[in-house]
Design brief:
By secondary structure, the protein is mainly α. About 65% of the residues lie in helices and about 5% in strands.
Length: about 325
C-alpha cells in the first residue's frame, strides 16, 4: 500500500469542500467556466474586428455557416500577432486569482493548501526554470537526433519582444498550475487518495486543451503525462512555485527559444527555428507541435520516474 506525506493534502483535508468526487468535479467545471469567461474578455475585444474581416473575406452567403475546425483556424490566425497573443497570455492571471479566491472563500482552506508558501520560493522557482528548460531541450535534441526536426538560428531576433512573451508565459503557466494543481489536485487529494488526485487533475488538464489545433490521442497522453510530472514535483517540493516555473519556461523555451508551435498555437518570435523533417506525426507531433511527439512521451515518463524515486528517497512516499 502506498502512503503519501503531503502538507498540502493535509491542509486541504480541512476544507469545506464536499468529500464526494462527483461534486468536486462538478464544482471544478463551474469554476473553470467562470475563469474561461473572464480570460476570454481581452482576446475577444482584441480579435473582434480582425475576425469579422476574416469572415467577410470568405464571401459567405447569407445563412451560410462554416465548420468548427474552420472557425478555429480563423481564431488561431487572428490571435497570433504579438499585440493580441501577449495580452491574452497576461489575461490568464484571472485563472490564478479566481482559483485562489474560490479555494480561500468557497472551500474555506488556506492558500498554503494550494502550495502558496514563502519559504524557499525563489530557489524553488529558479530550480523549476532550470528543469523545464532542460526537459524541453532534451525533447528537441532527441527529435533532431532522430531526424524528425531541423534546427537553425534566426536572424534579427527581437529580444525585447521575447521578453514580453516571457511575461505572458509567466502568468499563463502559473494560471494553469493554480487551476489544475493548486486547486483541483489538492482539493481531491485532501479527501481522496494520492492516485485519485493525480489522475483526476491530469485528465482535466489534458481535456482543457481538447479544442487546440492538432489535438489527438498521443497529445492527450502527453498532456496528461506533463500534468502527472508537474503534480508529482509539486508534492515533492510541497509548494506550487517549482511547477509554475517548469510550466512557464517549458512553453517559453518551446515557442521563443526553439520556435516550435506551443500546444497548436501559431509560431512566434524566437531565437531558433525548428521545422519538421519527417512526415511522421508520431515523431514531430503534427499541428500540435512537439508536445504531441513520442519524444515528449519518453522524456516525461523518465522525468516522472525520477521524481517518484526522489519522493521515495525523501520519505514523501512510503510503501507498506
Amino acid at each position: 500500500m502506498m502512503k503519501v506525506r503531503s502538507g498540502m493534502f493535509d491542509e486541504s483535508s480541512k476544507s469545506h469542500a464536499s468529500s464526494k468526487l462527483v461534486s468536486m468535479i462538478a464544482a471544478f467545471v463551474i469554476v473553470f467556466l467562470v475563469i474561461y469567461l473572464f480570460e476570454a474578455v481581452v482576446p475577444s475585444i482584441l480579435t473582434m474586428k480582425p475576425m469579422m474581416e476574416e469572415f467577410a473575406n470568405m464571401g459567405l452567403e447569407e445563412g451560410e455557416t462554416i465548420s468548427f475546425a474552420e472557425s478555429m483556424k480563423v481564431a488561431n490566425k487572428v490571435s497570433a500577432p504579438p499585440a493580441v497573443m501577449i495580452p491574452t497570455l497576461i489575461s490568464t492571471v484571472f485563472g490564478t486569482i479566481i482559483s485562489m479566491v474560490y479555494c480561500r472563500f468557497g472551500e474555506m482552506r488556506s492558500l498554503g493548501s494550494m502550495g502558496v508558501r514563502k519559504k524557499k520560493l525563489v530557489p524553488h522557482y529558479l530550480t523549476g526554470l532550470g528543469i523545464g528548460a532542460v526537459l524541453m531541450t532534451v525533447i528537441v535534441l532527441l527529435s533532431a537526433l532522430f531526424g524528425a526536426q531541423k534546427i537553425s538560428f534566426c536572424t534579427g531576433v527581437n529580444f525585447g519582444l521575447i521578453g514580453l512573451y516571457w511575461i505572458g508565459w509567466f502568468f499563463q503557466g502559473m494560471s494553469e498550475e493554480f487551476i489544475c494543481r493548486g486547486y483541483l489536485m489538492n482539493t481531491v487529494g485532501g479527501k481522496h487518495s494520492f492516485i485519485t488526485a493525480i489522475t483526476v487533475s491530469s485528465v482535466a488538464f489534458a481535456l482543457a486543451h481538447a479544442a487546440n489545433p492538432g489535438f489527438g490521442p498521443l497529445v492527450f497522453v502527453n498532456l496528461a503525462l506533463f500534468a502527472v510530472f508537474a503534480g508529482l514535483y509539486m508534492i515533492l517540493t510541497d509548494d506550487i512555485w517549482g511547477s509554475c516555473a517548469i510550466h512557464s519556461i517549458w512553453n517559453c523555451t518551446q515557442g521563443n527559444l526553439y520556435g516550435i508551435s506551443v500546444s497548436g498555437t501559431n509560431e512566434m518570435e524566437s531565437v531558433m527555428k525548428t521545422v519538421a523533417d519527417s512526415d511522421s506525426k508520431l515523431l514531430t507531433g503534427g499541428n500540435f507541435g512537439i508536445e504531441g511527439s513520442i519524444f515528449t512521451t519518453i522524456v516525461l515518463l523518465a522525468a516522472s520516474a525520477i521524481v517518484l524515486y526522489l519522493m521515495k528517497k525523501k520519505g514523501v512516499i512510503e510503501m507498506s
